[in-house]
Amino acid sequence: MMQFLRSLVLVTMVTSLAASEARAAVPGWSVAKTPDTITWDGTEGGGKAFTGRCEAFDAEITFDPGDLEHSSVKVVIDMASCLTGDTQKDAYLPQEGWFDVAAFPKAVFEAVKFRHEGGNKYVADGTLTLRGVTKPVSLPFALDIDGAKAHVVGETTLKRLIFGVGASSQLASSDVAGPDVRVKIDLRATRNGG
Fold first, then answer.
1. pLDDT for 87-138, tens place per residue?
2. Cα separation, 139 vs 111, whole angstroms
3. What angle is formed at CA 121 by the lines to CA 157 and CA 112, rounded to 5 degrees?
4. Are the beta carbons of 163 and 151 closer than 8 angstroms?
5. Shortest CA distance to 114 belongs to which of 134, 143, 77, 150?
6. H/E element, 23
7. Residue 89: phi, psi to the nearest 5?
8. Burial environment of residue 63 by CB neighbours within 10 A (0 to 12, 13 to 18, 19 or more)
9. Is the torsion defined by CA of 94, 98, 101, 105 positive or negative?
10. Model's pTM, two decimal places?
C-alpha cells in the first residue's frame, strides 16, 4: 500500500511539473491599458442606452493559438474605475445597491479553457467574480496576431441580477435598469520579449 501511495505521489508530481513547464512555454502578453479596452453598454429603465468603461485593470495573459490547452487569462478590474461619465449614474454605481465597491473593490475574470471556432474566432470559457459572486462566463473573441502584436475584440452579455448588481426589490425591476449588460473588449497587446 505504501509503495502504491509513493508511486501515486510521484506520478502526480511529474504530471504537475510537466503541466507547469508546458504552461511556461506559452508566451505571455503585455496589455496596452487604454480607456476603451473594457467598455460596457446598459439601458435605463425607459430603454435609453448608455455606455460605461472600466479604466483601471491588471491583466495576466499567456496565450498561444497553437497551444490552447496551456493558455490562460486573468483580468482583475478595479470596480471604482467602472464609470459612465454621467454624474448621477457615477454617484450611485459604486454604492451598496449596485457595484458595492467598498465591500467588493475588485472583479475578476479567469479562463483556462479556450475553443477555436474557426479562422480567427475563439471562445474563452471562464468565470467572472463580481460582488463576491462567481459565475461561468463565455467570452467569444476575434484574435489577430501580427508578429509580436496582438489585437483582441470580443463581447459577451451578462445578467446583472445573478451577480447581485441592483438586485434589491427597489432596483431589480427593468423599469429601473435593463437586466442585460453587454461587456466589450478591445485589447491590444505585445508578446513579452517580442
1. 999 999 999 999 999 999 999 999 999 999 999 999 999 999 999 999 999 9
2. 9
3. 70
4. no
5. 143
6. helix 2-25
7. -60, -45
8. buried
9. negative
10. 0.85
